[in-house]
Known about the structure:
Butyryl-CoA Dehydrogenase, subunit A, domain 2, Butyryl-CoA Dehydrogenase, subunit A, domain 3, alpha+beta, 4-stranded antiparallel sheet, 10 helices, single chain, 4-stranded mixed sheet, 3 domains, Butyryl-Coa Dehydrogenase, subunit A, domain 1
Amino acid sequence: MSTAFEPTPDQRTIYDQAFRFAQKELHPLLQRMDDEDWYPPGMMRTLGSNGYLGITAPAEYGGAEMDLFSSGLVAEAFAYWNANAAFIWGPHENLCLNNILRNGDETQKKRYLPKLISGEWVGALALTEPGAGSDAMGSMRTTARRDGNDYILNGAKLFISNGPVADVVLVYARTAPELGPRGISAFIVEKGMAGFSVAQKLKKMGWRGCPTGELVFDDCRVPAANLVGGEHLGVAVLMSGLDIERAFLCLPTIGEAQRCLDLSVEYANQRVQFGKTIGEFQFVKGMLADMYAELEAARALAYRALWACNDLEKGGGGRGDIHKLCAASIMTTGNMLLSVTDKAVQIHGGSGFIWDTEVNRHYRNAKVSTIGAGTNEIRRLIIGDELLRAAR
C-alpha cells in the first residue's frame, strides 16, 4: 500500500473481479429489489460460492484470508452496480462475520464462521433499540441475566439490517446495569432459539430489498458459551466494531457516488436541449466538476480510514486518532453522497424525479449515510471530543 492509500495491483485486481461479478450477478437484481422491496433469497449462497463471504477470514474456516481494505474494495464494486445488495452483504460480512472473527473464541468461530462464509446462514448485528439510538450504550434496556449455563435475554432491537432474515445475530445486552456502559456484554443469538422473534419488517424509502426490522427477546435463553469477549466486556467489542463499521461503510458510499457521476456524464452527453447536448452547458459542466471533486476528496479520506483499520488491534478503537478518523470519514462520505445524488437528479431533470430511474434509487438511499453507524451529529461530537482531548 502506498502512502497515498491507493490500492496495490493485487487489490486492484480484486476490485476489478468483484466489479465484473457485480455487473453480471447483482445489477440485474436491482430493479426488482427496489420496486418490490424484494429480498433475493439465493443471493448470499451465490456470494459464498464465489468467494465473496468471509473475505477477511482464515482459509481454515473457508475464508479468503484478505485484509479489511480489500474487503472494502469489494464493497465499493458491489455498490457501484447494486447498492441495495451491498447493504445486505455488508452487515453480514462486516458487522456479524468479521466481529465474530475478531472477538469470538475458537469454538464460536468453528461453529459459526463456516456457515456464514458459505452463505447458508445470514448474519446481522443488533445494537439500536426503540429508545436507544445515538445513546445506544447509555440508554440500552435489553438485559441478559445469568441462569446456570445460560443467559436470559429480554428486550427489543430496532432498525436491524438483515434482522428479518438473519440466522445469526450478534446482540448487545446489559449484564450489569449498575455499571452503566461498562456493564454490557455481546451474545450470539440463533434463529429458532426460544423467546427470539421478529416483531416487524420495516418499510424504508431506500435500501429497499435489504430487510430491516425489529427483533424481540422475551425470556430468550442463550447458552453461556455464546457470550462473546467475556462478561461485561461488550463495550470493547462494540466500540472497535463501530469504528470499523464506519470506515467500511464509506466504501460502498464511494461506489454508489461513482455510479451516479458516471450515469450523469453519460446522460449529459446524450440529452439534447436547445440544439446541443446539455453537457455543453457551462452550469452542467460545473455540477459534474463539483461531483468529481467531492467524490475524489471523500475517496482519499475513506481509503485512509479503512487502511488504518487494517492494523486495529483486537479490542482497539473507540478512542484516539482512529476513532476521530473513522467518524470524519463517514461524515464526509455521507455528506458527499447527499450532494452527488442531488446533483445527479438535477442533471437528469424530470427523469431523475421518476421513482424507477437508477439515480432516483441512489438519491433515496443517500440519506441513511448521514444516519447509520451513528448520526452526523454524533460523528461531530466524536471529532470535537478527540480534538479537545488531544490538546489538553
